[in-house]
Amino acid sequence: MGQSSSSKQEESPELREVQSLAASTGALPSLQKAFSLLSDPQNKSVPVHSLKKCFELSLDNFESDYTVASKELSIMFSHLGTTIVDLFFPTDENGVNWIDFLRGYTKCCGRAVASTYFNNLLRVFSKTCSEAGLPVNLQFEQYDDDCKIGGSLSPREVLRLLLICWIFSWDSRSLKLNMGKSKGKCSLPDISHLLLSAIESCVESDHELDFWTSDVSDVDIQLMATKIHSWGLKTVPNLADCLAQFVHSRLCYLVTCENKSESSCSSAHDNPSSTSSDTSLLTSGRAWAISLTVRSPIYEEISKACFPSDDPDEKNENLIYRSSLHGKGLNRFWSNVDGYNGPLLVLISACEDASSARRWIIGALTHQGFENKELFYGNSGSLYTLSPIFNSLTSSGTEKNLVYSHLHPAGRLYDAHPKPVGIAFGGSIGNERIFIDEDFARVTIRHHAVDKTYRHGALFPNQGFLPVEAAVSEVEVWGLGGATAIKIQDSYKKRENLFTEQRRKVDLKTFANWEDSPEKLMMDMMSNPQAARREKR
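^ thats the sequence. predicted structure below, dont judge the formating
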C-alpha cells in the first residue's frame, strides 16, 4: 500500500499530517485499498490517466426535459476527470504518490467550512465548462486560506450547475447502495423551483419576475457570483457537499469494487424513468431540494424519494397519509399518523381560486410525531415553499410554537373558549402562520409578522400582509423516522385495535338478565326514589 513505500517516508511529519487529516474523515482504510489498486507497483504512484478515469461520467442514454442542458452536460462530463485531477491532485513524472493522493482527497472531502466546499464546487464547474468550450464568467483569487469569487452566471448556467450537483448526488448514492456499481436510469428531475429561488435571491428588488413561467432558464439576466454563493449557503447548504460526496464515492466505492471495468462509469440502463410516472407532491426534484437542507438520518430517508430504486414500493414505504388515497379530513389523517414517533414531512397543495391553474405547494418538517393537544409543541422544525419557488424557513429559536394539532375533545359537552380544531405551524392560537381546518378543505396562510418561531419569508409568490384562505387540493405526510418508527407505530396500532375489540365485547349472560341490568335499576329509582336499597352480596 501507499504507506509502505519506505520506512523513511512513514516517519515523515508530512505523511503523518496528511494521514491524520484523512483518518479524521473515516475514509483512510478505503483510501489505502484504492491506492493499492490504482498505483503502479514499480514507482508506487497512481498513473494520471487511471485517476482521471475514476471521475469520468458517461450519461449517454438518460431522459430529461432539459434538451439543451443535457447535451451540454454530456460534453462537460468528458472533461470532468481531468478537471478534478488538475485542481486537487498534484502530480509528478510518475503520477500521484501516496502523500499527494491523500492531500487531494482532503482538499475535496476533508473537514472544512461550507464556504470552502462551495468554492471548490464553483472552481470545478468553471474549469470544466471552459475545457468543454462553454466558458462562464467566473473569476477566482486564490489565497492561502480563502478564495474570493467574482463574476456572474446566467440562469441557464445556474441550471447547469444544479443539474450537475443532482447527478453527483445520484451517482454517489447509487454507488453506495449497489456496491460500487452505478445502476438505474438517470432521469433528471424538474428543479425549476430551485432555479427560481436562486434568481429571486440574486436579482434586484425592482426586477419583476414571473414565477409561473415554464422556461425560467431563458431569463436574460446576470446573477452575481457572490450572491449565488450567499444563496447557496443560506438556502441549500448541503449543495456544496455534492462534489465531496462524488469524489469520496468514486474513490471508496467505485475503485474498491471487484469488477472495476464494468463500473468505471455511470451508464443508464433500461429501467423506467423515476420522474415520468411521479404523481405525488413529493417529486424527485422537491425531495432533493429538501435533502439539501437536512442532515442524517433524515437525509437518508428522504433520499429514497430523491433517487427512487428499481423497486417502485421503496419510495412509497415512507408515505403515511395522502388525502386523495386515504380520504380528506382530520380524522382520516389522525388514523394514519397516530402512534408515529419520528420526523414527519407534511406537504400541502392549494390555490386561492379553485379554477386557477396556479397551484402552490408548501411543506412543514417536524422532528417528532403529532400529538392531540390544545397548545403548540415541538422542539425543532422547518417550513418550506416547494412550488413554484423553493425556500427553506428554519426555526428562529425565539419561540417554540412549531406544531399544533387538535381534534374534537372527547366527553366534553360545553367549552366557553374552545380551541381551534385542525393542524397549524407557527404563530399563536388564533393567529397561526399556517392553519388547516378539520375538513382539510381550506388552509389559511398569514404573514410572517405574526410568527416568531420560523424565519421570515413568503410562503407563496406575491403573498401580502393580509391572511389568505386557499382551497386545499392535496395533503401528504411522509415519515422520515426509518424502519424503527414504522415498527413502533405498527405495534401501537395493534395494541389500540386490541383495546377496541375488548371494549366491544359484551357479557351476554349479564345482558340477558333483566334483574341485574343497569336499565332496571334506573327505572326502579325513577319510580320510587325514596325506597331503601341494599346491594346484594
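Residues 318-485 form one domain.
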